[in-house]
Amino acid sequence: MLHFEDFLPGQRFEYLPRRMETAEIIAFASEFDPQPMHMDEEAGKKSILGGLAASGWHTSSIAMRMMIDAFLGSSTSQGSPGIEFMDWKKPVIAGDTLSGFSLVLETRALRSKPGIGVVRFRNEILNQTGETVAVSECPIMFRMREAG
Q1: Cβ atoms of residues 107 and 4 within 8 Å
Q2: CA of 104: how far to CAs of 7, 39, 59, 76, 138, in Å?
Q3: What domains appear along the chain, each with residue ranges and CATH number?
């Protein structure tokens, strides 16, 4: 298990690749963001996005899953107090393969919650050509190791 003390500024956690399938994009959009460019290939092609595009919220959800698989799932994470920012830089089109990483920016112990530290991350999602499609920064709280 990764504890607060295991995170060091500059440390990078790589994400495993994930292909964005048409059916998955439409299913997510149907439930959470039913705009035409997320629901219909022709509407997507006619939009400024250039094809059936994943909702930015879908891309962010995929990023969260990638973080879980890369390191959060095997950590003492206590959740996050929020997202500092989230930018969707380029459309994620059906057939794109996403990958990326989380980079530790800084760490600090919480005085208000003994035994808990905060790690601030920069998270980047890239497409198959290496273009950045989404960026976010967020703090995540982790338990510290118990002394002794």
Answers
A1: yes
A2: 7, 36, 21, 16, 10
A3: 4-143 (3.10.129.10)
For the chain, the average pLDDT equals 97
The pLDDT value given to residue 148 = 33
Residue 86 DSSP SS3: strand
- The pTM (predicted TM-score) of the whole model is 0.94
Helices (H), 4-137: 22-32, 36-39, 41-46, 56-70
What is the tens place of the pLDDT at every residue in 29-77? Answer: 999 999 999 999 999 999 999 999 999 999 999 999 999 999 999 999 9
